[in-house]
Amino acid sequence: MVSLRTPKGTVDLNPQQSLTLEEIVRKVKSIFESHNGVPINTPTFELREILMNKYGEDAKLIYNLEDQGGDICSLRYDLTVPFSRYLCMNRIQKIRRYQIANVFRRDNPSFKTGRLREFIQADFDICGSALPMVNDAEILRMIYDILIAFSLPYAFTIKINDKRILTGLLKVCKVPEDLQQTACSTIDKVGKLTTEEINNELITKGLSERSVSGINRLILNNENKTDLETILNLKEIIKTSKLADTMSSSLSLKNSSDESILDLTEFEKGVDDVEMLLKYLDIYKVKNIKLDLSLARGLDYYTGLIVEAVYEGVDVGSVVGGGRYDNLCASLSSNTLNVPCVGFSVGVMRIFALYPPITPEWDVFVGSGYGLNLEDRMDILNRIWALGLRAETFTSKRVNYMEQVEYAKKNNFSVGVFTGDNEISKGSV
Amino acid sequence: MVSLRTPKGTVDLNPQQSLTLEEIVRKVKSIFESHNGVPINTPTFELREILMNKYGEDAKLIYNLEDQGGDICSLRYDLTVPFSRYLCMNRIQKIRRYQIANVFRRDNPSFKTGRLREFIQADFDICGSALPMVNDAEILRMIYDILIAFSLPYAFTIKINDKRILTGLLKVCKVPEDLQQTACSTIDKVGKLTTEEINNELITKGLSERSVSGINRLILNNENKTDLETILNLKEIIKTSKLADTMSSSLSLKNSSDESILDLTEFEKGVDDVEMLLKYLDIYKVKNIKLDLSLARGLDYYTGLIVEAVYEGVDVGSVVGGGRYDNLCASLSSNTLNVPCVGFSVGVMRIFALYPPITPEWDVFVGSGYGLNLEDRMDILNRIWALGLRAETFTSKRVNYMEQVEYAKKNNFSVGVFTGDNEISKGSV
């Protein structure tokens, strides 16, 4: 006999769990719709080559389909790369789309914390060229509204950062360009690893002692500052770096390659944009924002805003993640279609792990008081269904009055209708 | 550069298509709910061994996952076998459940007719012991209501048969037991193949000339009879066969193995049950039913009622399929859990192929009459979103009044709000 279980890292959801999940999805979707999102659907699997080189060090978690003579495919790892493929294929320059669907990762599973190998993501993305940070601000407003809508009894923080700032700081710390992405993967482990473990990993990856000490001072140590203090601090860093560059340049000290004059244009733009973003978030009345310079996220494709939302005091990891990915389309498309995109993903199964369960309620139980009266009951059911109400009866050989009443009570029926040989009685259960 | 397409037999659905699909699913789900269905969710893939030997000659269409060191899995082929696995695992004896989810078959694809390799099924099943044909009648009532709910401009027929009747007729036609299932697969091709092609296939599969001629007379030729005439005819066949058995028995003519006395108990019960079912369908006011003795369906697991619904004059195949599968649980479970089940599956993508497309409509477009006024517009948006309305603005650098009006008209906004330097104008677009 076969073993009756679900594959590792996957679960069945019983009716109560499924209804709870539906409620979470309904809430998210209603906010997606109020921002004029339109749904699209992409397949569960993609050509494998489309998923290559998009997920940094996590690519090993992709599920492959067996080669059965045909396309070489893999299950989707997220909804962002398939969406970019969709944009490119259809040459779409402007869209606000959502997709709520399952994604697959061969990760270390845990049901309790909502970490599964198959899980639901609810994605919203705004694509198309726009004034700086306007769409980014709307995305953060949506994340804030969604977290409020769940009405969970936990405080939450929406952590933001900007890839241009992070890259700028790594430059200032003299991290060579080819090590910046892998350094980000390590920095992303703040909170999971101790500072010592992070430093060791950075050294192992080939960063110099001086770079690591710079990272500690500039990136890992800004927890107790307000966002405006952090902005001022970043401006100060840029000013100092420029001054240092000018001085060493005028003293003709620049000769080794890693001491070349830093191009901090993007860094500066990032800081200005985040300052503007904070102003827009004020207009949008978005609270619970925290500019966190150590927020990195593992994915390769982010280019600007990075965002991650967490509930305080619970162990489910981030419940929302996202950011700006302006170059993903261009990286897929040979016809250099470039569509600036910013979006986010709600980890529905992680919310689910925190969510109070929902019990179904029904309308009418049709029972029999005395005698089988099956055809009478069928006739009554028929009329109730025609009204659009939800109704059910016992279809077993024997009908016991009390057993039916117990069943109707236990299953939250609001009305019971009972046929008898001579009567039809009706009343609230 | 990679090829930007979806894998063979899969498609993207654009917003209009996705909204149309959602509407179809919403209609089906509302009828599932009115019959007190509860949702469950099972994983997209199952342990491969669970799917083995359930799908007759179609098992070759199962998609396998690559062995990446872990469970050996395959994508689900339908929602029925996973559901039976769920029943057994949780030792559930009674449930009315629905599941609306994607299934996967490496079949010959065609988008136009809704035949895809990944497609959505909407399943409803009633499980648990019950009086004969009561749940079967409810299932047919649901199928009828769903087909009515789609309001499509095509006539439809709900074809029914009973596996016990089909097996009985094959017995009467002297088809050996080990060829009955494969004979069913061939008979199931009525409408796709000519009678001659069917006869040839049956002969090739090893049936005798006499069996094939019997099948033609008794199974393939009952199109122009009413259901009651067919029932009477079946009763006549049973009577005659019994008489023939009695006669040959009293004449001691039974000696070769294929001439043994036929056990027609199940056949007779099938005929009586279908007669009862037709009476219940009268009470439930279900029309468009046609008892079709050639309806077989390829799947191994059916034990009683078989059902298939088709629209007349369109080429999408059957849009609903289902039946009774009383032994599927027992075939999975080593602890001989047996749960009688009857259910059906709506081929959502095939309905989709026939369905009129739906266009999204929005509430408020926030524009600028003169000047950028971005922060004013953001403030207005903020207040509109807070009301739960759907709103959007232009976020490009230039704003041209007429361009905004055109956009709002084209995208079915119901209200436009425009800011100016000195005014806020408001009106229906």
Report the span from N to C terminus of chain A.
Answer: 44 Å
Tell me the greatest interface.
Answer: A-B, 91 and 90 residues
Quaternary structure annotation? homodimer
Total domains of chain A: 2
* Secondary structure: helix percent of chain A: 25-40%
DSSP, total strands of chain A:
14
- Report the total helices of chain A: 14
Percent strand of chain A equals: 15-25%
- What is the ordering of alpha helices and beta strands of chain A? HEEHEHEEHEHHHHHHEEEHEHEHEHEE
Tell me what the CATH architecture of the largest domain in chain A is. 2-Layer Sandwich
Family (chains A, B): Belongs to the class-II aminoacyl-tRNA synthetase family.
EC number (chains A, B): 6.1.1.21
InterPro entries (chains A, B): aa-tRNA-synth_II, aa-tRNA-synth_II/BPL/LPL, Anticodon-bd_dom_sf, HisRS-like_core, HisRS/HisZ
Catalytic activity (chains A, B): tRNA(His) + L-histidine + ATP = L-histidyl-tRNA(His) + AMP + diphosphate + H(+)
